[in-house]
Amino acid sequence: MLDARQLEALAAVAEQGSFLAAAQALNITLAAVSLRIKSLEEALGQRLLVRGKTVTTTAAGQALLTHVRQVRLMETDLLQGLSGGAAAGAAGAASWQTLSVAINADSMASWFLPGVAPLLAQHRLLLDIMLDDQDHTHGALKSGDVLGCVTTLSRAMRGCVAEPLGTMRYRCVGSASLLASVQEAGGGVSIHRLLATPAVIFNRKDGLQDAFLARHFGLKQPAYPRHFAPAVDGFEMAIELGLGWGMVPDQHLANRAAQPGRTPLLELIPGAAVDVMLYWQHWEREAPSAQRLTQAVKAAAARSLIQDW
Fold first, then answer.
1. How many beta carbons lie within 10 A of that of residue 165, not counting itself?
2. CB contact at 8 A, 150 and 137
3. Among 70, 18, 17, which residue's Cα sits nearest to residue 285?
4. How far apart are CA 44 and CA 283, in angstroms?
């Protein structure tokens, strides 16, 4: 049997980033934390932590950390069930439960939060959201930092389930002045003018612009000037101000169109899009609260994403 105090010490060190911070969080001495970690490593016969300026977990340590987080969720659900749910709410902040997820910014700002908000309020759940590009969010699930992620990875990772959510469709858009500057006399877009015009890119992991150029012009990673704007509002504002062209999902374009006074973003090539298929990857063994979140995410995606698989 694994020792609960030793596991909590491991989790505290991993989450706090140092032995000293872990000791302060657990309200025990630094020596006690070190002894618990050492005893756990000796019992398992392998290193769990890599000591350095920043303490990191080994593969074995990460597996144990994932186990600890799963057990925490299950214990919280059990205790709330035993106390009758509503009665637990009277206890105040202690009854709130945190669920960690990794999602891309476009999903968070469009369909994800509106879709799960009723569940969060009803069951006193808190979200700890890690933002990353949809091609990279699965790394947080693999490391055990989150219980689920919105990702483009269709193959389920070890110990996980990958459930299709639907497709987000992205349009290449720009301001009216930018569109006029890249058009040829006949009305089509000049690829030479487009490549001489800056693009607005969310961050350095964002490959949607390259995907658009590859799909519709046959270009493989061409060179072009780039602005980086890693915030949804700032990203769209940069395009609206004519700073460059960029890829915006249909959901965001529809929201803009529904707001009076918003400057429209125009498609550079009408009908030319990049489709991104999204999946919800989550632990195969889920606590009841995590199961409810999974169902809410799938329902929200079914209402907002293209269901064409």
1. 24
2. yes
3. 70
4. 24
- Residue 273: φ, ψ to 5°: -135, 170
99-158 pLDDT tens trace: 999 999 999 999 999 999 999 999 889 999 999 999 999 999 988 889 999 999 999 998
Distance (Å, rounded) from C-alpha 289 to C-alpha 286?
8
Length of the chain: 309
Q: Which amino acid does the sequence have at 191? A: I
Are the C-beta atoms of 264 and 239 separated by less than 8 Å? no
End-to-end CA distance of the chain: 45
What's the alpha-carbon Rg for the chain, to the nearest Å? 23
Q: Name the phi and psi angles at 258, rounded to 5.
A: -85, -5
- The answer to whether residues 160 and 283 touch, using CB atoms and an 8 Å cutoff, is yes
Q: Give backbone dihedrals phi and psi of 111, rounded to 5 degrees, phi first.
A: -100, -25
d(CA 3, CA 86) in angstroms, rounded, equals 32
Distance CA 221, CA 201 (A): 14
- The DSSP element (H or E) to which 251 belongs, if any, is helix 250-257
Distances (CA, A) of 58 to 5, 64, 68, 117, 208: 19, 10, 15, 35, 33
Burial state string for 264-281 with b = 16 or more CB within 10 A and e = fewer than 16: ebbbbeeeebbebbbbbb
Between CA 229 and CA 149, with CA 120 as vertex, the angle to 5 degrees is: 50
Angle, alpha carbons 214-215-220 (nearest 5°): 10
Give me the helix-helix angle, 4-16 and 30-44, nearest 10°: 110
Structure tokens at 2: 């694994």
Task: Give the separation between CA 41 and CA 10, rounded to whole angstroms.
Answer: 10
Token pair of 261 as six digits: 């006074």
Largest Cα–Cα distance in the chain?
76
- Output the pTM of the full model: 0.80
Give the per-residue pLDDT at 88. 44
